[in-house]
Amino acid sequence: MSKEDIGITVSKNDDFSEWYTQVVLKAKLADYAPVKGLIVLRPDGYSIWESLRSTFDKKFAKNGIRNGFLPILIPESLLGKEQKHFAGFNPEVFWVTHSGTNEIGDKLALRPTSETLAYTMYAKWIQSWRDLPLKINFWNTALRAEIKATKPFLRTSEFLWQEGHTVHTSQEEAEEEVIKILEIYKNSVEEELAIPVTVGKKSEKEKFVGAVYTTTMESIMPDGKALQMGTSHFLGQNFSKPFEVKFADKDNVEHFAWQTSWGVSWRLIGAMIMVHGDDKGLVLPPKVAPTQVVIVPIYKNDEGKEKVLPKVEEIKNKLELKGIRVHVDNREGLSPGYKFNDWELKGVPLRIEIGPKDIEKESVVIAKRYNCEKTNLSFTDIERIIIILDEIQKEMLKNAQEQSKKNSINISNYSEFKSKIEGGGFLNAPWCGTSKCEEKIKEETGADIRVIPFGSENLNLKCIYCQEQSQSIPIFARGY
Fold it and tell me: What is the pLDDT of residues 359-396, one digit of tens each?
């Protein structure tokens, strides 16, 4: 057996980057495509994305948001309508210039983001206040040329995401929408992926190009780097004016509309891998696991097989009736030990082991993936597995929250800041609010302001860089 065929060959603590790549590939979530910077999503990886999509769709629908579809090509003339926005994306844009051997005239961009295209259409669809609010979400791919090092799910030139674009009659209603979406994101990530996040605003320097302000959710990874998990932007009238997204009010007076945009990507899957995985491989939260329970029948001969398999089928049927996603590993020619390792690598939350001796005891052995704990469970209690899966989900979030707290440090002076940033983590440090200090800190330490948490305003402390009065206590970190 070649080295590529065996399990994870590096420790998460020793070589985090290599460990991560091995988990993605060997757990069969994704593989590299023939084109640099692109990946192919395999069925287990896509199943996790479908699970997240289903959760978001249900929550979006409750908020009056419907799904639509946008084409992937955008004329250059449209991208240029909002100059700041276009300038921010221009270095990353892939351009289509030819159809066959013929030049096409106006260059076409492969969608880096859809504001310009969506709002061109919105301007056609919106006439009066009766057409508002307009709330549409698009499940798309986006393409942005990654010139830096690429990494599956975290930095690729094409990625899966959703982007929502809403239009409102008032500033107040639009700003309320921004926060509603951020709350949906936060709750979904914590409840489904068991990853704690911190929410708040981006600094002026770090906000989405073209937005009035950007709200964000950030998480700290086990290697001490921060990861942006999703953003929700208040666009004000910055796009409605150049794109003429207008409505007539009840008195037939025309106004420019107020807008929002927001999105999350399959970067969430990358975060899940990093936060929960271990040296054996992937560790999946039950809610998003493609297979929640794997049953491994154990027998040495036909007599044992005939004894075990009927009970295995009975257990499988009972669990499936409870809505649990179950797989029976009845592959021939592989040892139970090989199968255990294989399913641990793939991160299945719960494994059931059952052999002839277990039949006699009227119980099975259950093994939890997240903490490797093994216990016996009687046949009569087998339906408790749905409760056990729920407990695993909660425990995984609790463990991740504890890890996040350990990686969060309060900083009082700049020398301490420079020392602590080398070890990674979230650094909570007072800041005067000026871009000058923010840029100097970035230049000297490599740390960005990741998020200014809601409620972190503080006028009693001194900025760690310039010692002027602080305006807030943002979170600084080096990020992906």
Answer: 999 999 999 999 999 999 999 999 999 999 999 999 99
Laid out side by side, the sheet with 326-328 consists of: 326-328, 293-297, 350-354, 363-368, 374-378
pLDDT band at 158 (very low <50, low <70, confident <90, very high): very high
Task: Tell me the C-alpha distance between 54 and 24, whole Å.
Answer: 22
Give residue-wise pLDDT tens across range 32-87: 999 989 999 999 999 999 999 999 999 999 999 999 999 999 988 888 776 665 56
Residues 6+ apart with CB under 8 A from 144: 89, 92, 93, 112, 157
pLDDT above 70 covers what percent of the chain?
Answer: 97
Query: What distance in Å separates the CA atoms of residue 429 and residue 475, rounded to the nearest whole number?
Result: 7
pLDDT tens for residues 434-452? 999 999 999 999 999 999 9
What is the band of 3 on the pLDDT scale with cuts at 50, 70, 90? very low
Question: In terms of Cα–Cα distance, which of 272, 324, 274, 334 is closest to 298?
Answer: 334
- For residues 295 and 350, what is the distance between their CA atoms, to the nearest angstrom? 9
d(CA 118, CA 135): 11
Cis peptide, bond prior to residue 222, ω within 30 of zero: no
Q: CA 195, CA 287: separation in Å to the nearest integer?
A: 12
Whole-Å CA distances, 228 to 197, 217, 309, 380, 451: 9, 6, 47, 45, 9
Cβ atoms of 271 and 220 within 8 Å: the answer is no
Copy the structure tokens of residue 472: 């807030």
Is the per-residue pLDDT at 1 higher than 50? no
Q: Are 267 and 159 in contact (CB under 8 A)?
A: yes
What whole-number distance in Å separates Cα of residue 190 and Cα of residue 398?
A: 10
Residue 147: pLDDT band with limits 50, 70, 90? low
Cα 351 → chain centroid: 26
